[in-house]
Amino acid sequence: MKTLLYPSIEKWDQLCTRPEIDKADLDQSVRFILNRVKSDGDEALREYALKFDKISLIDLKVSQAEIDASAGKVPEKLKKAINVAKANIEKFHLSQLRDEDIVETTPGVKCWRKNKPVEKVGLYIPGGTAPLFSTVLMLAIPARIAGCKQIVLCTPAGKDGRINPVIIYCAGITGVTEIYKVGGAQAIAAMAYGTESVPMVYKIFGPGNQYVTKAKEIVQSDGLAIDMPAGPSEVLVIADKFADPAFVAADLLSQAEHGIDSQVIFLTDSMELQNRVLAEIDIQLEELPRKEIALSALQNSISILFASIDECLDFSNMYAPEHLIINTVNASDIAEKVTNAGSVFIGKFSCESAGDYASGTNHTLPTNGFARAFGGVSTESFLKKITFQEIDEKGITAIGPSIELMAEAESLDGHKNAVTLRLNSIKNV
Amino acid sequence: MKTLLYPSIEKWDQLCTRPEIDKADLDQSVRFILNRVKSDGDEALREYALKFDKISLIDLKVSQAEIDASAGKVPEKLKKAINVAKANIEKFHLSQLRDEDIVETTPGVKCWRKNKPVEKVGLYIPGGTAPLFSTVLMLAIPARIAGCKQIVLCTPAGKDGRINPVIIYCAGITGVTEIYKVGGAQAIAAMAYGTESVPMVYKIFGPGNQYVTKAKEIVQSDGLAIDMPAGPSEVLVIADKFADPAFVAADLLSQAEHGIDSQVIFLTDSMELQNRVLAEIDIQLEELPRKEIALSALQNSISILFASIDECLDFSNMYAPEHLIINTVNASDIAEKVTNAGSVFIGKFSCESAGDYASGTNHTLPTNGFARAFGGVSTESFLKKITFQEIDEKGITAIGPSIELMAEAESLDGHKNAVTLRLNSIKNV
What we know:
Two copies of one chain form a homodimer. The radius of gyration of chain A is 26 Å and the shape is globular. The first copy, chain A, contains 17 helices and 14 strands. By secondary structure, chain A is an alpha/beta fold. Chains A and B meet through helix 5, strand 2, strand 3, helix 9 and helix 10 of A and helix 5, strand 2, strand 3, helix 9 and helix 10 of B. Strand 13 of chain A pairs parallel with strand 14 (383-391) of chain B.
């Protein structure tokens, strides 16, 4: 972990820059996969499963028998833990479903909005070493609360041709309507264009490797909605001399273990704490099964000593971290001043792991500085708001003449005429 | 206008397909412009102004003197009309700014979201034959209500090197912080990457021609936020035998006059109305200054006779129109069943022009079927929601063990350890 002392403000911009990812090579190979799936459908999906995942699949769809069998394979204790998380995620995401008011902007002119679900959504859950069943909860629960009719889940099968039972179990209890054994860029293609087996959806959610990310980027430029642009995961911790260095080190390491490209930033106004945290990291690293990954991630990571906690926060607002942990005495006051972040964890007991799994907030969050313009996934991500207006005689009489003038000034006489005819019909009654 | 009678449901999908726009040629030329602006900044912008707009510009930024002078050039009657529209747009968009509740998902686990403005936003206003000052109102008013600090507006200057005074006037009264004489794809590049004059922003809004649309698509794939994907404007009108054919014809024509690629769809269950509307279109067309444009647009447009109004609505929900006008006796009941549309106009006096200018709803809406996944521009489009959580001893004691189990099952021991350390610290007190 690189250590910096009191960097001048001119250098902040540079320090906020994430490592560039070279995407040029990816573009061609991902486009090739997308086009293959678009033209050859299931046949392409089966070929890619054989090529990339080394499995020969007949049915791409997970059968009801596989779904029924999964529950028995999940330990009861884990089921209970998942249910605690599920209840909290449901409670928080249900609170985001709010009715809109009808606004009478002028007497006789009523305007309002209504939430309507995106009818068909696709969730991508990566495969790999660990089964990320928590992401199933984070995506399927708000989709179900929003009222999405078709909730499609794609995830690659393991070498045994099966999907981890915990993923299937989580999909089952959260209302996923169908599960397909398809991974990588080809899964994004399948949900974007549809194949014989996999239905086309209107919006695609979920994390993935650089191929998946690139595929989402390309289908987005064709007009398909995606949750948000993606980059490596990151945490920024602000702590003062009252913080427990072991807690800070553990929070930094819990981010570093995600992947070798994870970003970890530690800001403090206490040189003593800085030194103790760095020492704690070395101790805790030894115990970590994913030590090698964490070590690589720490090489891109920085610890910065600032003159004050306020300066730490100013830097954080410029950096716009995905996760921001504020581990200081007056953490709530500092949190009030956050302008750019994905999710903020206030106080010494609010560790990122809580939000990753079970507190109720969503863990699908904007990385790479995207928190300057994007929020994380929420129930609204699975809804769109339709505007409605109902104008009566009194209303069009009041605003009609203004519309006529404005339409005329924009040289849109057809627009004007639609109003004039109505105003005349009222006068002539 | 093509007329269809009772098409079978198998044909609906095809009828909902918009004309394909070939974007392959555009890609290269727009990328060239973007890269030029990225590397050469203002110099590139001045060159493009000379090349495309035939003007030689020294200052790209509109001066305070130009802003001060603009108000005097706008007729008082138009100013009053603009103020009527502004008041309604403000009222409706202010109602969208709502505080979020704090949710205690588990005793000791508080989760909430807070709206924070996107600090820097860019608004693009096209030039061309008509000055689209109404779009300034539709974008700048919610930006100001959201609390955006920097509201940048780019629009091309006319051949006299000036910007239409009504656009400047609207920008002045809505809180736009700076105006630049830059148009086309180069304006999008300037706001995406920044130049010596034009600041970089975090999110870009606004309509434009195919170059502008392509430029927004490309900068979006670099992670910059944009309002929504764009296609040609469109209206779908559902009317029954009680509708005034002149109103229906005027509404269809007000969309057709937008551009030759506008989409106009008319659905009814009354053959008599269908015939009378088509006849009315011919009559009203003669009076329309933009007749030639409307005529071209009508060539891509269809009128469909269905067996019932319910079928009309089913088709509309599949088509997902940008604007949906319901001109029937029980229009409110039918509006209840809308699942996919940008903005819905209920009843005979609710013409699209009302929403385009002055009722209060936003006129920046999803086209091209994007209404299946996207809503129109709203105050929320200029905000992002940050999640917060504050967990105390009691809270982490309650959910901690579940987090430990889930993290372990995902092989993320660092995540688990961050909780274990906290649980141990509580036990050891």
